[in-house]
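Table S4 entry, RPW8 domain-containing protein.
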Amino acid sequence: MALAELFTGEIASELWKMLKTISRKALRCKSSADQLITFVRELLPTIEEIKYSGVELPAPRQSQLDRLSEILRSGVELSHQALSSSRWNVYRNFQLAKKMEKLERHVTNFLQVPMQAHILADVHHTRFEMAERFDRLEASNRRMERFLGEMKIGVNGGGWVEDAVRSMQEDETYGNNSFGVGLDFGKNRVMEMIFTGHDVSVFGICGMGGSGKTTLAREVCRDDHVRCYFKERILFLTVSQSPNVEELRARIWGHIMGSQGFSGNYAVPQWMPQFECKGEAQVLVVLDDVWSLSVLEQLVWKIPSCKFLVVSRFKFPTIFNTTYQVELLGEEDALSLFCHHAFGQKSIPMGANLNLVKQVVAECGRLPLALKVIGASLRDQNEMFWLSVKNRLSQGQSIGESYEINLFDRMAISINYLPEKIKECFLDLCSFPEDRKIPLEVLINMWVEIHDIHETEAYAIVVELSNKNLLTLVKEARAGGMYSSSFEISVTQHDILRDLALFLSNRGSVHEHRRLVMAKREENGLLPKEWSRYKGQPFEAQIVSINTGEMTEMDWFDLDFPKAEVLIINFTSSDYFLPPFMNRMPNLRALIVINYSTSYGRLHNVSVFRNMSNLRSLWLEKVSIPQLSGSVLKNLGKLFIVLCKINNSLDGQEFPNLSELTLDHCDDLTHLPSSICGMESLQNLSLTNCHNLTQLPREFGNLRSLEILRLYACPYLETLPTSMCDMKRLKYVDISQCVNLTCFPDEIGRLVSLEKIDMRECPMIRYLPKSAVSLQSLQLVICDEEVYGMWRDVEMAKPNVHIQVSEQYFDLDWLQE
């Protein structure tokens, strides 16, 4: 009996425990169902995303994920059953709770074991793939570094910037040849006006901005019949909204008189007497981008045998004897031009959406500039991108209505689709004066400083903007520049694109602009009155660009630019007081000072340099270099002195960390100061077109970090210092046009890193030191045919060395002036 009672009691106890468990499970069934639904809803999308991510998975992993998806879906259904079950149906709820527990265990076990294995496998694959990608990225960076070096010294074609220049030249040639129905018609009409209008002296080409007026004028000047008719006496000048009238008058008068020697200081008579030009040759003067009647009246004279071709958006009926109105492109020419920039061919390619392409072309209004920019922005983009651009274009009015604003709206669409950094770099271009060439070095240095990017990325951005027709790259032909293996390149921009950049940059209050830019010089040559309203209030500008005439201390407003990193000063004067607010620019990194007058500008208030401890790049042009009074620019890395009077003011101790020094067209430089040789960090030295430079210091070889040495167009330089053979890092030497240089140093073979020598037009060098065969890194020598023979021994001893005989160079860059 006791045993039976004991047995019965134990059973009852266990049964009671089970009943309590069942009751708890049944009672918790609904809350468990809610938790399970939440769990599944969080997990299932992730599983589905992995399955359909487009990444091919191994079959076992795909199968496991399929099975897990099915289980999770069944869990949702099970949860809904539990939620719909009556609270008092204990058995059903218990069964459902058990199933939910089983499902939870199954999913948990999968997440703890197979899923962890998947994660480890993914991590392994990711590490392997990332290692590969980093290797590719590192190799790409090495290639970019190499291209940058090649571009600087001209080895292996010079890299992708020169390719971009070549591509732009090809585009121009292609465009002029391929879309010639309208262009040829316009050219023939203008030539007919010139040739038949014997009693007519002033002709006009008019049309909307971006319609191709300047292109037409240049094609007229390039025509063989025109060049023959005027016997090459053609002068092409850009006037712009801020012209230096006296300089333009002097150049025109010098061209008419057959002398290019007149400067702006020459007193050109206000009234021109009737006379015949020298000989019987006709003279053609082209005035491009004319905005003002008052300016035009000062530049045009009625002189026999002299004709003026004026290019403008405006008609000047009181001046023009006859005018050609530029017409927009025809539908076929517009489509062909667009396709060239969008697809790289003259027609719509197979597979492209024919109607969509034609709709985009129609929205461009048959304006060449709009077709080029918008077409280039759509190149290699998918159809959805095209559709988005088309929809945005179609939201505005037609270009013909409120022409300029609506053109801006359309062009802005292309700008807004640019990556943010490239867009900002495009907008920076408006900081420079209109119709002026921007030296590529100036632009690159500015971008490096304000955008904190490497030179290679800055060059890549230049190429990208060039490919999208948002700027133009021009290979210079400055005196000696044809021999510059660094490819003397400048940047120009259509005035419509500059106006667009200004339009996009000038939104909001003036003191909040990131770029504070004087779009043109004020009539009084001073600062805009609008700026004076913010005296005592800090400006937010990162870039400040000033364009004035002569400035005295009293002409400056008391302005504050605490965030300014770039200051661009453009002026036209022989005397200039530097702005006092430069003392309050603690973050200034790049300073550009350019004088556009015909005489050297004397700078005053140079004490401001004492407070420029963070200045890294300095460009001075057409100024008389002042004594810096002991100011030490310890962070200055790059110094460019162009067309300046040195005045024996150059002291290397003032620039202890300089890496790049350029002295170009500095006529009073007779010898390089020995203090320059103490610059231990100097890597790039250019002494170019310094026509009175006679010698280099004996200590020249102390520049042990020097990699690039340019000495071209220094005609009075007779010898190179023997000590330069100590420059173990020197990669490139350019001595082109050093016509009196007699020899290389005897121990030139010690230049173990030398890769390239450029020695065109060095007729006095008649022999080569024997040590030249020891130039172990030499790859390329460029020379004239007369001296080719002395390099044959080196070429035979070193198969990797290429001796390139230079071709005779003819400078036809008069069209670019």
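The radius of gyration is 36 Å.
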